[in-house]
Amino acid sequence: MNLLSVGASYRTADVSTLERLAIGEEDVPRLLHKLVGQPYVGEAVVLSTCNRVEIYAAVTGFHGGLGDVCNVLSEVSGIPATELAGHLYVHYDEAAVRHSFRVSAGLDSMVVGEAQILGQLRDAYHAATEADTAGRLLHELMQQALRVGKRAHAETGIDKAGQSVVTAALEVAESRLGRLAGRPALVIGAGAMGALAVATLTRAGVGPVRITNRSAARADRLAEAYGATPVPFADLDAALRDTELVITATASSEPVLTRDRLEAAGPLVVLDLAVPRDVDPDAAGLPELTVIDIDSLAASRREAPAAAETLAVEQIVTAEVEHFLGWLRGADIAPTVAALRSRAEDVVAAELRKLYGRRSEFTEEQRADVSRTLHRVVQQLLHSPTVRVRQLAAEPGGDQYAALLRQLFDLDVPHATQADAVPELGGKS
Description:
The protein is of the alpha/beta class. The chain is 54% helix and 13% strand. It is built from 16 helices and ten strands. It is elongated and about 100 Å long. The two termini are 23 Å apart. Mean pLDDT is 88; it is low at 417-429. Pfam families: GlutR_dimer, GlutR_N, Shikimate_DH.
């Protein structure tokens, strides 16, 4: 099995494409099973956030695996494969490992260093575990990616400013509204992003802050935790008329803020952090409405200069990638070593049968002595070479040793060879 990562993010797709690709939490298990039901896909993890949708997969061949993943994404999103291809980035094996570690560390985030991605990645891994679509390879990748993300935050100052998508959106809002402290704000949605929004607004001195959610109980709990005011969802229209700043981040598949609703609300700045969008695109152009969505944020975050903390995290990622590849190379040779030992045992068993067929006078005790002796000889002969080949396999270029063993001893090891050639990957990232 080989690692493959295929995805689209704010770097490669606009929000209208991302919302067509977005996978609702309730749809993840079905998508996972659909992926592992494909011919070339053996394991799968799905990561879907407000600004990225990624598939991590263990595949038996690059071209076949890529085709399977792209076909599934095209089917669930309704985007033709030819159109979808222009928005996707593809990473294979080492590049897939590096990408997953950079994602977990916040290096690939719209707001570099944001910590929310760790929780999102943990949820994605948990969903795959629950659906039983993460095997040995993706279990190890996800566990190590989460560890790398924690290490990056613990050992560097990459998140020292408490950066998040919400803080980035507020920076853009402040450039439009001026000072935000003391301005009334409304948060729509009481999920993880809604909670982050309430916490960020409170720290920034924005307020009073009100919260509304279809589930009143969740809004009540969140409001109590931060000293905010819960608002019944049925009173949303009235709440909109009494605020200046709105942060909306629901999981609704349909726009929550329609053109008519926003037109009646009066002057508003809306930070739409939901994918699919909570603000109806038809509301664009209303004279007293300013909408800051994922596209606006992406444009404001392009080409941020590399800070010392970022460079330190890149060094951590590079070291951890090499460590993981060493494990991967060692794991790859294990089936070959097992096949070699099995071949040796088969040869010993066959020779013993021939011997016992010719020497029927051997007692059971004598047969046992001969069998133990031959097995000990084989084990001693194979011990040093197999230990050494495991060590060599863990080094760069170590896959050649497994291939050499298979060729020398004519070993049949399932999935030990590539199903097809791997091209140069020069796609977007």
